[in-house]
Amino acid sequence: MKRVCFQLQIRPEALADYIERHRAVDTQVLDAIHESGRRNYSLFVRPDGLLIGYYEVDDDATAAAALAKDPRTAKWEEESREYFANLTGRADQSAPGLTEVFNLEDQLLAASQQRQPNYRKNPPPP
C-alpha cells in the first residue's frame, strides 16, 4: 500500500464554495474514486486556501489512469478547475505530491522487529 499526499492552492475567493461543494460529493464520483483503488481519501484546508490531500492506494498510476478515463469524474474535475490557483490540467492528475518523511506505524513495526530477536535470545526466566 502506498500513501499519497498532495498540495493545491484554492483561490481565496473560491474557498467557501469549494468547501460547500465537498460536503456532499456526487455518489457517482465517490464510486469512481473508490473503484479506482484509492481509499482512506481525505482533504484538509487552511483558511488561506492551502489544500492538503491524502489517500492510500496499491497502484497510484493505475488509479490515476482509471480516473482520467472515467466519464463520471470528467465533469467534476472540469468544474473543479476554477477553484484552484496556478493549476494546469486536472487537479487529480497534476497536484504536486509531498514526500512522506515519518509514519508512526512503519516506525513502530520496524522497532518491534528490531527488538523481537532480543526477546528470543534472552527469554524471561521461568
Give the topology, please.
Blueprint: E1 2-9, H1 15-21, H2 27-36, E2 39-45, E3 50-57, H3 60-69, H4 71-80, H5 91-94, E4 97-98, H6 104-121
Antiparallel strand pairs: 1-3, 1-4, 2-3
Helix pairs in contact: 2-3
Overview of this structure, please?
The structure is a single chain. By secondary structure, this protein is of the alpha+beta class. It has one domain (2-121): 2-Layer Sandwich (Alpha-Beta Plaits), CATH 3.30.70.100. Helices cover 47% and strands 20% of the residues. It contains six helices and four strands, in the order βααββαααβα. It has helices spanning 15-21, 27-36, 60-69, 71-80, 91-94, 104-121, and strands at residues 2-9, 39-45, 50-57, 97-98. It has a four-stranded antiparallel β-sheet, with no helix packed on it. A hairpin with a 4-residue loop joins strand 2 (39-45) and strand 3 (50-57). Helix 2 packs antiparallel against helix 3 (60-69).
Quick synopsis:
The chain is built from six helices and four strands. It is α+β, with helices and mostly antiparallel strands and 126 residues long. The chain starts with a strand and ends in a 5-residue tail after the last helix.
